[in-house]
Amino acid sequence: xxxxxxxxxxxxxxxxxxxxNLTIGRMDLIARCISSAFFxxxxxxxxxxxxxxLYGPPDPPKNIILCGEELEGISPxxxxxxxxxxxxxxxxxxxxxxxxxxxxxxxxxxxxxxENFIKQKAGEKNIIYLHPKGKDIREYEFKKSFLFVLGDQKxxxxxTEKLLExxxxxxxxxxxxxxxxxxxxxxxxxxxxxxxL
Amino acid sequence: xxxxxxxxxxxxxxxxxxxxNLTIGRMDLIARCISSAFFxxxxxxxxxxxxxxLYGPPDPPKNIILCGEELEGISPxxxxxxxxxxxxxxxxxxxxxxxxxxxxxxxxxxxxxxENFIKQKAGEKNIIYLHPKGKDIREYEFKKSFLFVLGDQKxxxxxTEKLLExxxxxxxxxxxxxxxxxxxxxxxxxxxxxxxL
Lengths: 197, 197
Prior knowledge:
Two copies of one chain form a homodimer.
Chain A: E1 3-9, H1 27-38, E2 39-40, E3 43-44, E4 48-54, E5 62-67, H2 78-90, E6 100-104, E7 107-110, H3 114-124, E8 126-136, E9 146-151, H4 158-166, E10 170-173, H5 181-195
Parallel strand pairs in A: 1-4, 1-9, 8-9, 8-10
Antiparallel strand pairs in A: 2-3, 4-5, 5-7, 6-7
Helix pairs in contact in A: 1-2, 1-5
């Protein structure tokens, strides 16, 4: 089954950036999330779609979409992944609102807000977000194709949580501890692997 | 309960290295494992001890030990972690065999082989290694304080697996898929968190 993730990065840079300084805009965090979403030993998960919503300077919002089905020439290290992101951002100037542009096999970019994206997805997919008070993922019943929404180091903004609630999104928990976003993705993938989803 | 990990890195560099090129010796992989072992949201796991055994050029073996209890000034990004490792290696010259030297709070380095280390641990701890044919971790009964042994991108060398078997180590599985070492650590930590271990 397809596994779709959406990561909201409030500080994530929206122009090409210095690959030797990835903590600016916490691009390192974004890279680790992508690594967790796609990489297993010697292979890429072909059934994963990963959406990044960048809200940092100087040109927000930018929405980068990675599709495992077609993804090529990417390695699991932070710098390698950030090189790809930076290249994508270089080609993302002058996009019209809601226009989605193909950059290379499996990589797309658009000027699209998370709000716009999620409203469209709400009809199509079961939307899930991680919350300490949510239902334990090990007991959660995945009903149809789903979309996991994740926040960056600050978690999800309050207004995003409200939007998700209004759209009927469901809360899921990974246990008692609050994990880094990239680690949440690993745990979610492991649970889905075990269920053969 | 204390959680101890040991990562064997056959190519991991044993002298200070270029922080802008972390894929040489796969120092990026080592950094991700450390990140997975110690970091949760806004905190460091104080009950984790992480041993790295570096067997790459030019001066193997080197054993770096990180103790969560005392660890300070470390961030979860690859470059930040590798900066620490490189600084440790700078101070690791002229070590005598099996000598362990304190570098700073929570960080030690020694010229010690994995074989020597594990033979000593065998009496003290329940040794576990990840193997696709092992017992499912969700059903595994952790008996006493334990030590998880992990390989790098090539897995564990055959002779290491034999040594572990001879020492009575137990095989544990995380499901049907072979994961990256750093992702294995996340899954193991999640399982232990759930059990309150």
